[in-house]
Design brief:
- This protein folds into two domains: 25-224 and 409-423, Glycogen Phosphorylase B (Rossmann fold), CATH 3.40.50.2000; 236-407, 3-Layer(aba) Sandwich (Rossmann fold), CATH 3.40.50.2000.
- By secondary structure, the protein is α/β, with parallel strands linked by helices.
- The protein is globular.
- It contains 15 helices and 16 strands.
- The two termini are 33 Å apart.
- An eight-stranded mixed sheet has the order 5-6-4-3-7-8-9-10. It has a six-stranded parallel sheet with strand order 13-12-11-14-15-16, with helices on both faces. A two-stranded antiparallel sheet has the order 1-2.
- The protein has helices at 40-54, 100-124, 139-149, 164-169, 176-192, 201-210, 236-242, 264-273, 289-296, 310-319, 339-345, 359-367, 376-388, 390-407, 410-423, and strands spanning 19-20, 23-24, 26-30, 58-64, 78-81, 84-89, 129-132, 153-157, 195-198, 218-220, 249-256, 278-285, 302-305, 322-326, 350-353, 370-373.
Length: 429
């Protein structure tokens, strides 16, 4: 996929109604991070903005200057990037995320700047839609204020539900008054949104059942794979480098091992499979990485390797036989593990470890592209079956690619964002 939103030479999504009256539909997008910042949210936001512009809309992105890390690549404060107008706010000394103080200070700096500069933008070129993503927290307050000033409509894209996820994981201790205030502000933001976008059905159920959002206003639009790969032959050279035998079944987990990712069933399954031609490889980071290293240290069939990016990461996925995707039970109400989509795009079966009602687990069950384990014995039984029947494992991989092409490609997802913005000009049905 290119920076312009095209992938594999395909044309970008188009819409027949990307106009209001005799002019182009105007969309203002707010998010702290945008390309060339390196955080995933920057890439998702910039790609969605590009898709809307390619569909004929007039799109402005209001972001901070690149600041996800202190070494972020500089970018101009004003830029026309492949048809998307980008306005960036100076962050001064609040660049980077090395401490909570700097991170929260950066949030406040962006919110204040977005309100001030956004007001000038909507005065000069009133948008029909103000779309905001959920970075930083409370950006929807600014977005709703700007939308009200021009009788526009707000689209609120939520990737994680806070403070619920913080409380459920005990990641941080928040005083009760702060929790009540945060929840009250969430209610204000959700009520102000004409449409709300979440990543999964579990998140939608939470907003409808516990936050009082009308079901017809909540739209499930998942993420696409990042990176988006294609099925390839198994990378035997890299397997040799990892010390994985040709006949061994390589189960690969990549990404964050944080407070939402319990591996207890994997521990029990690896114990039962110790001595069998199975290798579990974790390419991970996160606050609980050292904890899980300790839990697995007794097993010869489990290894941890440094995180890889770019072509090195692509080769790693190509070397594996199965993609392992964990999510602690209950966490499906707050987030969706995006790493699953990269394995699906590469045509690798999924071994998910999560509640059966989680979105990714339901994809696995509905398409036959893998197995969802809720206990160590179930995990070990499925691995044993596939050791004895490699043809079925390959068929599961083909089904993984088929379900990805049907439901989760970048083009499919971007088309849904275009359709949502066109539909936002009418009452939700």
């Amino acid at each position: 996929m290119t920076a312009g939103g095209r992938m594999n030479g395909q044309d970008p999504p188009a819409a027949d109604n990307a106009s209001v009256g005799n002019r182009r539909q105007r969309v203002l997008i707010l998010n702290q991070y945008a390309a060339p910042d390196t955080t995933p949210s920057a890439h998702y936001v910039s790609t969605v903005a590009q898709a809307l512009a390619d569909a004929g809309m007039s799109v402005t992105v209001l972001a901070a200057e690149p600041s996800y890390g202190e070494g972020a690549i500089p970018a101009p404060l004003r830029e026309l990037r492949a048809g998307v107008s980008i306005r960036r706010l100076r962050m001064g000394s609040w660049r980077g995320r090395q401490s909570k103080l700097r991170r929260f200070g950066g949030y406040l700096r962006y919110l204040a700047g977005a309100a001030m500069v956004g007001r000038r933008i909507v005065r000069a070129d009133p948008p029909d839609i103000v779309m905001c993503f959920s970075n930083p927290p409370f950006v929807a307050l600014v977005a709703s204020w700007l939308a009200r000033r021009v009788a526009g409509r707000m689209v609120y894209v939520i990737h994680d539900i806070h403070p619920d996820i913080l409380l459920a994981t005990d990641w941080i201790s928040l005083p009760s008054p702060i929790v009540r205030l945060w929840n009250s502000l969430n209610q204000v933001m959700l009520r102000a949104a004409f449409n709300v976008v979440v990543l999964g059905e579990g998140m939608k159920r939470l907003l409808v059942a516990e936050k009082g959002v009308a079901s017809e206003r909540v739209h499930v639009i998942p993420l696409w794979a990042e990176p988006e790969l294609r099925p390839t032959e198994r990378d035997e050279d890299l397997r040799d480098e990892l010390g994985v035998g040709k006949d061994e079944l390589l189960v690969l987990s990549t990404g964050n091992l944080g407070v939402m990712h319990s591996l207890e069933p994997v521990v029990e399954g690896a114990r039962r499979l110790d001595g069998r031609p199975v290798r579990f490889v974790f390419v991970a980071s996160g606050v609980r990485l050292n904890y899980w290293r300790t839990r697995f240290q007794e097993f010869a069939n489990v290894s941890f390797v440094p995180y890889r990016t770019g072509e090195s990461f692509h080769r790693l996925v190509a070397a594996c036989d199965v993609g392992l995707v964990p999510l602690s039970p209950g966490m499906e109400r707050f987030a969706v593990p995006s790493r699953a989509y990269t394995f699906l795009s590469a045509g690798r079966p999924l071994l998910t470890v999560m509640d059966p009602e989680a979105d990714v687990a339901r994809v696995v069950a509905g398409s036959g592209c893998g197995f969802n384990a809720t206990c160590g014995d179930g995990l070990a039984d499925w691995v044993e079956l596939n050791l004895a029947n490699r043809a079925e494992l390959q068929a599961s991989g083909r089904r993984a690619r088929e379900v990805y092409e049907a439901r989760f490609t970048c083009k499919v997802i971007l088309d849904r964002y275009v359709a949502l913005c066109v539909g936002t000009q009418t009452e939700p049905v």
